[in-house]
Amino acid sequence: MHHVGVLGAGTMGTQISAHLANVGVKTLLLDLPSQESDRSSIARRAVEQLSSIQPPPLYSPDKLSLIQVGNFEDDLPRLSSCQWIIECVVEKLEIKHQLWEKVEPHRSPDTIVSTNSSGLPVAEIAQGRSEDFQKHWLGTHFFNPPRYMRLLELIPTARTLPQVVESIASVGDRLLGKGIVIAKDRPNFVANRMGSFAAVRALELMQELGLTIEEVDTLTGPVTGFPKTGTFRLADLVGIDIMLDVVDNLYQNLPEDPWRESFRFTSLFKQLVERGWKGLKTGQGFYKKEGKEILVLDPETFEYRRRKKPNLPSVERVRHEASTIKRIGTLLKSEDKAGAFLWPFFRDIFLYAAERVPEITDESYQIDRAMRWGFNWEFGPFELWQELGVEEISERIRQDKKVLPEWVEELQKRDSKCFYRVESDHQVFFDLGAREYQVLSEDPEKIQLTILKKQNKVIRTNAGASLFDLGDGVACLEFHSKMNVIGGDVVDLARWAVDEVEKDWVGLVIGNQGKNFSVGANLMLLLLEAQEGNREEIDQMVQAFQQMTLSFRYSARPVVAAPFQRVFGGGAEVCLGCDAVVASSETYMGLVEVGVGLVPAGGGVKEMLIRHFQEARSIPETDLFPALKKAFRTIGTAQVSRSGEDAKRLQLLRPSDIVEINSERLLSRAKQEVIRLAEAGYVRPEPEQNIPALGNSALAVLKVGMHLMQRAGYISEHDFLIGKKLAHILTGGDLNHPTMVSEQYLLDLEREAFLSLCGERKTLERIQHTLKTGKPLRN
């Protein structure tokens, strides 16, 4: 797929175009003709605005050049070269009909055509089109924002060719990094159908039980495995008017749905829309920001008030429980208002999901995937039901005089009594149509560590990490501490893993499938030691960390990291120490230690200096100071990459490192890279002994720059101290003239600077603040 046409330069059309450009696809974006001299100015302005949108739709600004613009009157003939045409215009059937009538004469045979409609009947949109058009027609429902939301629902009609569905599924998976769910052509498909039901059920229960908006958002937030937006923040984010349209569409088009009356429970939504309070886009909805304070709506008076801390004792009791399943299990049994809300809420989600198979999709696992990928639920409804106990939950549902679907009752007569199970080397699910367990269609390139664990592929484990057998002689070191912080247990297992792999393995992958690769070292442990003045213990911790990263670099076997999402501080240093990296396209990597009053001490400064100098020294007689200054700026300002590709710009990744768009393929790609390096005759590298150190003259220049920034108020006195320590390392310490130094020399400088800063009161204040708030402190 190298040329795609997108019809409609609204939010979705423009951002779909941006994501196509992200992966190198030439895109033609068309919209209505303008009355201006530039008749394509509507589409052109939409593209120009992409650079200012947050979060950024583009991996890097240079991707804009792949998006061409035009209009519906002058540029339809340009669609003839497109292999796929996606329509993203307003959700009105007549307008879509009229547009496709104009477009079809310019469509080439075999070109795939689709609609991004979120709820209109897909088959009806294509009525009146030719036989060939109909065979190549389907729904392709992207979720907003397309770069970040993994779900892509494919909605074939009765006339869609199977190979067309397979083709777009492959493009979505391999090219665009999407999780594919096959949905039926029913109102709002899978994810929005389930998500809308959950929202209206939460609203219904809130009013029945007299709960506040804050309480419901707490109960439908991270404590129970949902995103931090909860129910009402999500409504504000999506747009209350849009949410109301979706729910009304369900009510109007589902006369046979036994839960239909729940979709009428939207009077609160309607009143807000009538007042023009539509959420974030109008400045107020369920929440309203005044200055720095966020107010919340009182649904009784329709006035905004200060937020109150939810009075939910059972939630406070489970908040520090690491397991989401254990938290939910406890809350469902609680006798306070948390339990009164959560039991009927989850019960009805379980029932509604079970009753929707096979109406909205033929396989139950498609619903689980849709909710994880489209709404960022930690567990899909069937996954959660199983984790809580299929029989236990089902019995409680029966006690409530609710009727379980016949297929769920039948499933419980089987020996395993579960929706999913692992058999030998594959996962199976209970197939409603076949009334038996079927192999879950699995891609061998999508390794799941949870499945490997059930297959007894764990070689060794402790509280912070595990070593897995990925097959073909490749092992995988997984971090699984809280937020994947790197503490003593991780370091110990990592050192053991390297020794083990060197015996008779092909190589090692460092990767996991948590929410983030790693947010860095264990700051809480560091703070406790620093407050106690245990300098020797901190010194030992730093040395152990350095030895770990060096063991990755100088192992006799290739070591490849597979980072994704947040890769901060020590997590970035782990990657910097590996032979190669296969990074997710959504990798936000940075050496951010200055934010907590420290400098990198696990080899990060040393490695960044080497990389910047290698690039500069590739050109004979090049002045090395600009390269040093660039490394100083990257570390000293705690720059974080905006994507995997952007990490290459910052030299946190090498030009040769691989960026993989589908996170589910990350471990497999890293495994393949280990095998490739081994088969190419991998030889352990020699430690660097000749790294240029520019000495005191370069240090003086950096200090002058910092002094000027401090005088101008851009940095604090403590920032200056941290910057001075960082500059001291980068320039080689107290050297009267430029010379060559070794890696170990620079590592010793890193450690000395780190230990010194651990003794500073303001550094400890920064660490405390970050641990408490998750945000840096400027002091």
End-to-end separation in angstroms reads 51 Å
Give the domain tally: 4
Number of strands: 25
Shape: globular
- Kindly report the spatial arrangement of strands forming the biggest sheet: 3-2-1-4-5-6-7-8
Helix proportion range: 40-55%
- Catalogue the unreliable spans: none
CATH architecture of the largest domain: Orthogonal Bundle
pLDDT average, as an integer?
A: 95
Description:
The chain is of the alpha/beta class and 779 residues long. It has four domains: 3-182, NAD(P)-binding Rossmann-like Domain (Rossmann fold); 191-402, N-(1-d-carboxylethyl)-l-norvaline Dehydrogenase, domain 2 (Orthogonal Bundle); 449-592 and 640-679, 2-enoyl-CoA Hydratase, Chain A, domain 1; 691-773, no CATH class. Helix content is 44%, strand content 15%. The chain contains 31 helices and 25 strands. The strands form six sheets. An eight-stranded mixed sheet has the order 3-2-1-4-5-6-7-8. The longest helix has 19 residues, at 191-209. The radius of gyration is 28 Å and the shape is globular. The model has no long low-confidence stretch (mean pLDDT 95).
How do the strands and helices of this protein lay out in sequence?
Blueprint: E1 3-7, H1 11-22, E2 26-31, H2 41-48, E3 67-71, E4 84-87, H3 93-103, E5 112-115, H4 122-125, H5 131-135, E6 137-142, E7 151-156, H6 162-175, E8 179-182, H7 191-209, H8 213-219, H9 232-238, H10 240-253, H11 267-274, E9 287-290, E10 293-298, E11 303-306, H12 313-318, H13 324-333, H14 337-355, H15 364-375, H16 381-388, H17 390-399, H18 406-411, E12 420-423, E13 426-431, E14 436-439, H19 449-454, E15 458-461, E16 465-471, E17 474-479, H20 488-504, E18 507-510, H21 523-531, H22 535-553, E19 559-561, E20 565-568, H23 570-576, E21 580-584, E22 587-590, H24 604-617, H25 625-636, H26 644-649, E23 658-660, H27 666-679, E24 691-693, H28 695-711, H29 717-730, E25 739-741, H30 743-758, H31 761-773
Helix pairs in contact: 7-10, 7-14, 7-15, 10-11, 20-22, 21-31, 22-30, 24-25, 25-29, 28-29, 29-30
